[in-house]
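Quick one - first record:
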Amino acid sequence: MDIRGDPYGLLAAHPVAPLVSLHHLDSVNPIFPGQTQVDSLKKLMQSYHVDSGLTLQQSFCYDRKRKWSVSIAWGYTAQLYPSLVSSRLLTTPLQTFRTWRSRSNGPFVFNTRPFVDDPCERPIVYFLDQVQDVGKGKTLSTYKRVPVAGKCNQLAYKYAMLVDRITVTAMKSSPDQWLKSASYNAGQAKGQAQEKTSQMADKAGDMMQSAKESVQEAGTQMKAKAQDAAEAVKNATGMNK
């Protein structure tokens, strides 16, 4: 990673390509909050050992009923937006980092979007808590919400904040997946909500129950084709020779 500062935005919107290496880690913040760089890498390696091909691969899905968008970088982080966000924006990294040489806000060789100060414009962020192979070619990973910097008083945001955890079920990646046409995956996530105040219980009651249901009920599974990533892998493996 030829960047400095916080690598979160780049890792949360990792390109459709296999995770090969992480370098210059001495020049970026630990990838998990509240942990050392070594402990952070050990945490990420838990995911890598369960499914190396799926680690950091981005999935996203929508809940039209509540108008939520969910983005997941498998084995690392999940983001919940209490609004409908386009796939183009979800796959564009939040600029939490700076350039390598000049330590400035750009330019980069890829598109970024600003990580704004307004908490109402930021996603609700979850980090990996547990990951495991549950058999039958499936994995189960859980992401726990982290404290939010600043406070958003929008009602939709407050309801979304009741989701403390997001649980993701996924099929294990196949050994030859990178020789096929690469694409973003549709997410399958379950959120577990917990009440924070009794005053919000009546209004959040219906949402609390439905938040435990699969986000896949949103019905819209959007896939953004990334043919260039597949071609790059074929070139690297010599298949196009």
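second record:
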Amino acid sequence: MKLLYFDLRGRAEMTRLALHAGGVPFEDVRFSRSEWPEIKPTTPRGATPVLTLDDGTAVTESVAILRYAGKLGTPRLYPEDPVAALRVDEMVDIVGSTTGILAKSFGLPSEEQLAMRTKMLSEDGELTKVLKYVDEAAKANSSGFLVGPELTIADCALRPFVYWLTAGILDGIPKDCLDQYKGIAKVMQTVSEVPAIKRYEAEQYPA
């Protein structure tokens, strides 16, 4: 099995985390932005990530790939119980909605972009509402994970989003924008101690 994506966390990182946590062997194929024009025509839909199964089937759509990854390996990161799976899906989709919110500001002139992002992070801002919901859910879950008693793909979806939002690479989004969200911080800490994830991140992203 092969996972194809840029050499950054981005939309593939949640699947990488899930596969590593589940002990699922896979080929982590990364490429630079300069290589993308050559690689793009070889993908099914001109986009990544792409997961190629052992029989050669190529699958697109990052969340679909994540859900599949969560059903493989041990431990299983996607619940078999329908209600538990529903709660996990809810959080994965809520976390994913933040990308759409922020995308509204992409490509705008600098001043307009900063104003929009400041509004998103205001007390009643669109992004703040999502962050508060996720944070309260995390606080209410005594396990330290986002949903349920153990690691799920919801935690894998949250982690790279937090890194992206706090990296200081988005103008108008300060690095400390999540400092007030103690529930999210608790999940980040709990996930960082999962042995397989801790080992992967130490090797892939050494300090």
